[in-house]
Amino acid sequence: MPDHTAFPPPPAPADAQPLHQLTAGQAELQEKVQAHFEKDGYKIPGVQDGALTDDEKFWLTYECTLRYLRGTKWNLKNAIDRIEGSLKWRREFGIYTLSAADVEPEAVTGKEVTFGYDKKRRPAVYLIPSRQNTEESPRQIQYTVWMLERAIELTGQGVESVLLMINFAARGKSPSMSTSKTVLNILQSHYPERLGAALILNVPFILNAFFKLISPLIDPVTREKMKFNPKAVEDGIFDADNLFQDSGWGGAREFVWDHDKYWPAFVQMCAEIREKQYEQWRKLGARIGTKEWDIKASHDVPASSVGSSAATAEPQDAQAVAAKQKDVPEVDAPSPATHEVVGDPSSSEVSPPIEKIASAATT
Questions:
Q1: At what angle do helices 76-93 and 24-38 cross, to 10 degrees?
Q2: Cβ neighbours of residue 22 under 8 Å, at least 6 residues apart?
Q3: 205 plus 348 within the same structural domain
Q4: Count of structural domains, the chain
Q5: Under a CB-based contact definition with an 8 Å cutoff, are residues 91 and 47 in contact?
Q6: What is the span of the domain harbouring residue 68?
Q7: Organism's domain of life (predicted)?
Q8: Residues of 199-209 as b/e, b for ≥16 C-beta within 10 angstroms?
Q9: Beta pairing, strands 195-201 & 226-228
């Protein structure tokens, strides 16, 4: 029987541990970032009614501060500035008010499909440019961001990043350079450390040749995350039963797009996960710096609650069903040498391979 709907994230293995083991210096920087946003009377600079809302406090997790610190090579001022820039952007863009109904016209052909998880339990987002169904507009960008937010909601305990699965076969209409750069800037500036990998099939000849030419100049971490024409099962990235069978992906899941079946179920599943996490966050004190590890844990599991030097005991995942999981969660080492770099958001120069990913995301 073919699949028509997505499914929730798999549980963490029974022996899973929190991702981040920090040095004393890194822990001190994290505490300083958190303290900046916790101080009495804090307001987002340059924003009317700049006091943080519950949505913004929920977003400002312990792991969130670490992602921005890693993305700025552990520079305290730059990390704070980047977070404040993202807080402002999220309000202006409408992250917390943009609804499924607002972007649904972009979704009807299945040009973006979130389905399955790799062996590190990262959700896979399939981008299928040939299914483009609308003219270029701000709504295309809104849809791309809305889908990314939903994919992030499907990251389970101990998982922070997503996979982009891009197939350039039967290429559709390309968005303008302006739109591609806008999406790229959003990804670089406001979603640091969220790209686990980009698997790209049927790479155009020009792009492939150019990438080989400039690959020595690309940051090694980013270069490692871009995989051209991979064999996702044979390469050990996916189990076959979590991967599309058709379009050259080589998995075992016969997924057939049906908007009326996929979309309502996907929207409802994400909403239920989001509300469950909000409920857990409120139980933990509804505070800035709450750990995603705890927010995503079973409600019955003791939590260390807030990311600070005072909270030293990490929770253990007690779900018996998780014992079936054999693969350990991804380890995103907090060393300054392993941060993800996809370009300088302040620069007008765009790395063409990364730009292709941004282009595909809006088609």
A1: 40
A2: 30, 66, 334
A3: yes
A4: 2
A5: yes
A6: 24-96+268-310
A7: Eukaryota
A8: bbbebeeebee
A9: parallel
Return per-residue pLDDT of the chain as tens, 363 residues. 889 999 999 999 988 888 788 999 999 999 999 999 999 999 999 999 999 999 999 999 999 999 999 999 999 999 999 999 999 999 999 999 999 999 999 999 999 999 999 999 999 999 998 899 998 999 999 999 999 999 999 999 999 999 999 988 866 666 677 888 888 889 989 999 999 999 999 877 766 676 677 667 666 777 788 888 899 999 999 999 999 998 889 999 999 999 999 999 999 999 999 999 999 999 999 999 999 999 998 643 334 444 543 333 333 333 333 333 334 333 333 333 334 433 344 343 444 455 556 666 666
Q: 90 with 158, same domain?
A: no
Q: Is 53 a domain residue?
A: yes
Q: Residues 118, 252: one domain?
A: yes
Q: What is the CATH number of the domain that holds 126?
A: 3.40.525.10
Cβ–Cβ < 8 Å for 81, 36: no
3-state helix, strand, coil in the chain (%, to 5): 45, 10, 45
Which ranges constitute the DSSP H helices of the chain?
24-38, 54-59, 62-71, 76-93, 100-107, 138-153, 177-190, 205-214, 220-225, 259-283, 292-295, 352-361
Whether 155 and 244 map to the same domain: the answer is yes
Pair (182, 86) in one structural domain: no
Question: Are 234 and 283 part of one and the same domain?
Answer: no
Residue of 346, 350, 347, 359 lying closest to 176 (CA atoms) = 359
Cα gap 2→300, rounded to integer Å: 35
Which residues does 194 contact at the CB level (< 8 Å), separation at least 6?
Answer: 67, 148, 152, 160, 161, 162, 187
- Based on the domain organization, do 115 and 260 belong to the same domain? yes
How many CA atoms, within 13 angstroms, populate the side-chain half-sphere of residue 14?
A: 8
